[in-house]
Specification:
Length: about 280
């Protein structure tokens, strides 16, 4: 009796049956699958929410709506977030938020925080604006996209964003390291965020993500893990001038390094004990 199944169907069935084995045995497969699920979930969610945010263009509170749905991606890929220092978000004072940047996973931590952050937007690289529904939704939600290669244009956009921050009592989130680094350290800061804060005489508020000990891009490892996000007390820039930028940058970075090391220590120690 001839088989009623075609070769493509048999291949698909075999592939599906091997998925649990690959997930359990292959770090590389698990690494790419988790990122695929993460990006797909966020992209689909953004697509579904486009009609909602479309009627409130460039409104940063759209990010609160998006966060309520996108945050579930963390549970799917096995990341737990612990939020500390949230009381520093309980005022309507405008400020420049700075944080370390380790991975595209950072946005999931921000989704956890947005209901408490309320009026807060982010400076992002311009190519993200063209990332389908995600990019369009991010633009509708008031993200500031800059092209780092066009320095003068980027500075102008940043100044305009700061003026809007002051006018609308919003917070502007900037990653001063300039790129993603998941190597257990906080890199030296670029000075753009500090120029903006001093020129506008508004505070700098540091936010620290603990080490992503469960993620290794070189070995393609992506295990379940926990991240502590700590919001530090805002640093006043009242009376500061451009002469104080270097000292302000170093002070903020030193505070963040200390908190990074402290919040990461117990998590990394727990991982070693579990192993």
């Amino acid at each position: 009796m001839a088989s009623s199944y075609s070769y493509p169907e048999l291949f698909l069935a075999g592939f599906i049956f091997t998925l649990p084995f690959l997930y359990e045995k292959s770090n590389v497969f698990r690494y790419y699958l988790k990122f695929f699920v993460y990006y797909s979930y966020v992209l689909i969610t953004c697509t579904v929410l486009l009609p909602v945010v479309f009627f409130h263009p460039r409104d940063v509170t759209n990010l609160i709506v998006a966060s309520r749905f996108c945050r579930f991606a963390s549970h799917i890929i096995g990341i737990e977030w612990e939020l500390r220092g949230l009381e520093h978000w309980d005022n309507e004072q405008c400020c420049i938020v700075i944080s370390n940047h380790q991975s595209s996973l950072d946005i999931l931590g921000m989704f956890e925080m947005w209901p408490r952050m309320k009026r807060c937007t982010v400076v992002a690289k311009r190519p993200l604006m063209f990332a389908g529904a995600f990019g369009f939704g991010a633009w509708l939600s008031g993200l500031v996209f800059i092209d780092r290669l066009k320095t003068d244009k980027a500075r102008q956009l940043m100044r305009e964003a700061t003026e809007r921050v002051i006018r609308e009592k919003t917070k502007l989130w900037i990653f001063p390291e300039g790129a993603r680094f998941n190597n257990g350290n906080i890199q030296p800061f670029k000075k753009g965020a500090f120029y903006l804060a001093i020129d506008a005489q508004i505070p700098i508020m540091p936010v620290v993500f603990s080490q992503y000990y469960f993620l290794d891009n070189e070995t393609k490892t992506f295990e379940p893990g926990k991240v502590v996000i700590t919001t530090l007390q805002p640093i006043s820039t009242k009376g500061m001038t451009h002469n104080d930028i270097e000292a302000l940058s170093e002070m903020a970075r030193e505070q963040m390094i200390q908190v990074f090391n402290e919040s990461s220590k117990d998590l990394v120690k727990h991982k070693k004990i579990a192993i």
